[in-house]
Amino acid sequence: GIELEITPELIGKDAVRMKLKEKFSAVTGFVVGQGGVQNPIINKREAETVLTIRDGATLVVGGLQSKREIENESGIPLLMDIPVLGWFFSSQSVEEVKTELFFIVTPEIIRGSYNEGLIRPPSEKGRLDRLEK
């Protein structure tokens, strides 16, 4: 599944610093364990990002990429198992699958709430000025 953990921090009155932890896991196959029990093979990807963005601005965050190969074999049953002749009655292919996961982030500061007491001084003024350009 997909898991996204966001830790926001107000910077001044109109910007947010966010720590994003992205996690993706998927079952990619099975392995036979003790007693014939099938255990899942789980592919995990993780990324961590820290960004500063103005209130209401939208940012696309990516980076969780994967690439895997899938081998396929098909043919006419029984005939494809005959040595040498089986080559004429079967086909093999390799498929390469590439994926990339993106998140679209748009922070919105809710005014007049308990957040007002958590505002930090704009000690990163230079960094915020670059965001406007």
Stretches where pLDDT falls below 50 for ≥5 residues?
A: none
Mean pLDDT comes to: 82
Structural class: mainly beta
The number of helical segments is: 1
The run of helices and strands is EEEEEH
Approximate helicity band:
under 10%
Proportion of residues in β-strands: over 45%
Protein architecture, described:
- This protein is mainly beta and about 130 residues long.
- The chain has one domain (about 1-30, about 40-115).
- The chain is about 5% helix and about 60% strand.
- A 3-stranded antiparallel β-sheet has the order 1-2-3.
- A hairpin with a 5-residue loop joins strand 2 and strand 3.
- It is elongated.
Report a brief summary of the structure.
The protein has 133 residues and is mainly beta. It has one helix at 125-132; strands spanning 2-11, 15-32, 38-54, 59-75, 90-105.
Reconstruct the topology from this structure:
Blueprint: E1 2-11, E2 15-32, E3 38-54, E4 59-75, E5 90-105, H1 125-132
Antiparallel strand pairs: 1-2, 2-3, 4-5
